[in-house]
Amino acid sequence: MDNGGAFTDRLFAEAKIPQGSTALDIGCGGGDITFRLSSAVGAQGRVTGLDLNGTAIEHARKRASALDVTNTQFLERDFLEFAQSGAKFDLTTCRRVLMYLADQSKAAKAFFNLLKPNGILLLQEHDKTIRLPAPDRPLADRAQRWIWDTVKFEGANLGTGFQLQSLLSDAGFREIAISAEAVVETPSQAVKTAEMVRHMLPRIEAAKVATAEEIDLATLEERLAIEQANSKSTSITEIVFGAIARVV
User: Fold this and answer.
1) Which residue among 35, 71, 72, 86 is the one 20 to 30 A from 42 at the CA level?
2) What's the half-sphere exposure (Cβ side, CA atoms, 13 Å) at 148?
3) Residues 6 or more apart in contact with residue 85 via CB below 8 angstroms
4) What is the DSSP letter of 85?
5) In this structure, what DSSP letter does residue 44 have?
6) Residue 17, number of CB atoms within 10 A of its CB
7) How many angstroms from the chain centroid is the CA of residue 227?
8) 73: closest CA among 8, 25, 116?
9) How confident is the model at residue 54 (pLDDT cuts 50, 70, 90)?
10) Does residue 236 sit in helix, strand or coil?
11) pLDDT over 70 for what percent of the chain?
12) What distance in Å separates the CA atoms of residue 244 and residue 98, rounded to the nearest whole number?
């Protein structure tokens, strides 16, 4: 769905994260980005992961223990409240969280307040306002709509990517660099649509977007693969946006 791993790596490389930095990962989930940060800041750095989901936080702590990562901590906290604590960091990351927040301007100001002078924000968001489906892959298009109609039902702003510049500028950030790339699917290059539908199935049903019977998860991956093999088209499934912004 998101092409996020490779894009995130490129965002990290462009930011040139200094060793020994203090870093905050907002909406850390199971710690995927937190552990990237842990490696980037080195043994002398410190990384804090925040998330509202206690189950995800516990999972992240167990992963840190299993990986013997000692420069991280994971807290079950609301980052908007945490931003009022006076804590300051050299670097803050936030991936695929802003789109779900009702008051994005307030969130952007919280990002700013969590950073020290010369601090860096790394932000990754996804945008579904541009979508070019393949005319000969109707099942893939339908599956993508199951995913994104659910996300929209849950209150997400699907146009967040195109709004990053103004949100960050209004919050006080300067030296804002925005990048974007399309996630494409071709006859030989697949997006992990079936995997994402499997992961989201309870949410899809809760949103009444589709039923399990309609989706037929047991055969979905095979049907998508057959459709792709017979396709001659390239489609754009979403746009991934990145922002690197600094407190000056």
Assistant:
1) 86
2) 21
3) none
4) T
5) T
6) 22
7) 28
8) 25
9) very high
10) strand
11) 98
12) 15
